[in-house]
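Input sequence (251 aa), recorded before submission:
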Amino acid sequence: LKWLWIQRFAGQRPAHTAPHLLAPRSIPAPQPPSPFPAVCSRQAPVESSMASSVAFAMCSASKTSLPPSHVLLAYGVFFALGAAVYHFVAEGEFSALLTLSVMVQCLAMALLGLSSLMSGSAAGISARSLGLEALALCCRLSSTTWLNGYLPVDASGDWVFQAFDVASLVMVVALLRRVLQQRRDPHEAAQDSLPVVQMILACFLAAALLHADLNRRPLFDALWMAGLFLGVVAVLPQLWLISRSGGRSGA
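Predicted structure, token format:
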């Protein structure tokens, strides 16, 4: 055996060498190079450069799908409306930020409604959260529809501001009706169990103590402040429902 190995490594070929020792070894075919071979396969060396990290991010982003077309359409429509209101209605006034804020809120309600319509289900949406949001919008509209204390001072406060709040209220009420009609699972109804009566009372009490006086009418000043507080806590029942359902939400 020692002589055979010496002859083999010396490049000589003995006559009585076994055939299986002389058989050529198969060489694997070369693989085509990958644009990011070590990055996309997560096998990059420890001392990889920042360029490799950027390449991995680009590789991961290329595999993610774009948002649905109806979501992109909603964003495009509201972006165009916001730009038109800011430049042509409010004429670039700083107070137009108030109008843009209610437009963003309206966009959020529209996206939630579109998500429910496209999926054909209202599962995972908290009815109590929608109820608090509807109550908050009603409290604010009780002041902004006929009093000027909490409206933008530019032209968008004449009707655009109120119009988007009304549109948000209509979508919230319609979505709340859809949730209550489709909720047939008693387990899901039991999960949406965060007490809201105490929160409503606390918001109205805080509004009665902390309201401003821009309307010069204490009742409607307090109602507007209560709407502000209710809008802040309206998300809590939704977070409660998500936590009770194991971090999953159909919304």
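Checked by second reader. The first helix runs from residue 2 to 9.
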